[in-house]
Design goal:
Elements (H helix, E strand, L loop, with lengths): L1 H13 L26 H8 L7 E7 L4 H14 L6 E7 L2 H10 L7 E5 L3 H6 L8 H10 L2 H6 L1 E2 L2 E2 L2 E2 L7 E5 L9 H11 L2 E3 L9 H7 L3 E5 L5 E6 L4 H15 L3 E2 L10 E6 L4 H8 L3 E4 L3 E4 L2 E4 L3 E2 L2 E5 L5 H14 L2 H11 L12 H4 L2 H10 L3 E2 L5 H15 L8 H17 L3
Parallel strand pairs: 1-2, 1-3, 8-11, 8-12, 16-18
Antiparallel strand pairs: 3-17, 4-5, 6-17, 7-12, 7-13, 9-10, 14-15
Helix pairs in contact: 1-2, 1-12, 9-10, 10-17
Length: 432
């Protein structure tokens, strides 16, 4: 193992910061080491022994619940690679939602390696707070991880972070003794109505609403500068696709089975609910032997069928640019190790984080996790959640509340389009 990582680090220093992958290795084979076979192993290993990666301190920021886990993995890494053990690692609890803002405020004083939520990627890239992952290393990491997580870590065709998880999003929990066809929203509703049971989805939430809008083909994204200011809004809600999505929500609210909500712990007489992995325990308790999960269903409007979509969420790990080439290579090797197959599996077993690594997703314990399996399938239909103005979430709640109140029950397409034009114009105004 030592020969492999040292060989790749040596090549990295000589190639201006890129880790070299072996052309003969399979990208999807993600061992716990950031390794590639050297072109001439004996010779490369001899050269590797002479490499001086220097010494110093490396600061890592991760979520509080994985601080101890990360310390243990760092100890394991340096125990295997004594030539890099001149560095002292400090692991500090800084959540994925806070890390980006802290780094951008003070890039030089920020962590050398840090975990962050994918919606912060554009800000970090614009601020120059991430080292690009290029060349053979980009090919390697892209081959290791699922496409959705790689897309969430990519800007302009360049990979900027190491995926850690594919586990934030929503899907369908259901009672399989009631729901006979989880692939169709209309069939689910019919089964729930026939059984006198409830279908739960929080349609007055800007997070869950996108399942309909994005599924129908409407879009709504924002661009920001490095200070987090919203500079542009790319919106397509005031379209035929947006009208179809709004009709679907209106049709759903009209059902006697519909209940607005997304917490299974607060659901009564429930046979199906759109929720996330954080509620898997409660879902198992409620449905018992009839517990089942699936990707979100399709919905049909005016004879056209759409696959429900929505937001996907991913945890990523980035490396701050370094002036010291040796330290940069150690940081990159350590980040690659912390995001590797073996460590993702260990992290799942320790705290339940769902792997992004394709091989890790095939681990028996991970595969047996029905909620993660359903979410993994659903994430293929979602977009990574970017940054949105706080006012967007309030506006989306207002739209959903109006639908639930029946304000649009008898509205024709022209009236729905007018409502969506107002909604879109307001969203665009947040970026001015």
């Amino acid at each position: 193992m030592k020969k492999k990582i040292v060989s790749i680090m040596m090549t990295g220093i000589l190639a201006a910061g890129m880790l070299a992958g072996c052309g003969g290795s399979k990208p999807a084979d993600s061992s716990a080491q950031p390794a590639a076979e050297p072109a001439a192993e004996g010779e490369a290993a001899g050269e590797a022994e002479a490499v001086d990666y220097g010494s110093g301190e490396i600061k890592i920021w991760v979520a509080e619940n994985v601080v101890d886990f990360t310390k243990e993995q760092c100890d394991a890494f340096f125990a295997e690679h004594a030539d890099m053990a001149g560095y002292t690692v400090t692991v500090e609890p800084v959540g994925e939602g806070d890390a980006a803002g802290n780094v951008i405020t003070d890039v030089e004083g920020g962590a050398d390696i840090y975990g962050f939520a994918q919606d912060q990627l554009a800000r970090l890239v614009a601020a120059g707070a991430l080292t690009p992952i290029a060349g053979d290393e980009q090919t390697l990491i892209s081959g290791w991880n699922d496409a959705a997580s790689i897309n969430s870590a990519t800007v302009g065709g360049t990979l900027y972070a190491y995926p850690l998880t594919s586990d934030n999003g929503y899907f369908l929990y259901y009672d399989k003794s009631v729901v006979t066809d989880p692939t169709s929203l209309e069939a689910i509703i019919a089964d729930c109505e026939a059984a006198g049971k409830g279908f739960y989805m929080e349609i007055n939430s800007g997070w869950y609403q996108t399942a309909f809008f994005f599924g129908a083909g409407a879009d709504l994204t924002y661009e920001t500068d490095d200070a987090g200011n919203f500079t542009a809004c790319n919106a397509g809600y005031a379209t035929e696709e947006g009208v179809a999505a709004m009709k679907a929500m209106i049709n759903l609210h009209k059902s006697k089975a519909f209940n607005n909500g997304s917490s299974i712990s607060n659901a009564a007489n429930c046979a199906a609910i759109v929720d996330g992995t954080w509620d898997s325990g409660a879902a198992k308790d409620l449905f018992g032997e009839n517990y089942a999960c699936a990707k979100l269903p399709e919905f049909t409007v005016d004879g056209t069928t759409y696959q429900m979509s929505g937001f996907g969420g991913f945890k990523l790990m980035g490396v701050k640019p370094q002036t010291d080439a040796g330290k940069l290579q150690v940081c990159k090797a350590l980040a690659q190790y912390l995001s590797s197959e073996a460590v993702q599996i260990a992290r799942y077993n320790a705290v339940g984080w769902g792997p992004s690594n394709l091989n890790a997703q095939q681990d028996e314990a991970v595969k047996a996790d029905e909620a993660l399996t359903a979410l993994s399938e659903q994430l293929q239909y979602t977009i990574p959640q970017g940054q949105y103005p706080g006012d967007y979430w309030t506006l989306a709640t207002s739209l959903g509340d109006s639908i639930i109140s029946g304000d649009y029950d008898n509205a024709d397409d022209a009236a729905l389009m007018a409502a969506l034009q107002d909604f879109q114009a307001t969203c665009e105004g947040y970026a001015k």
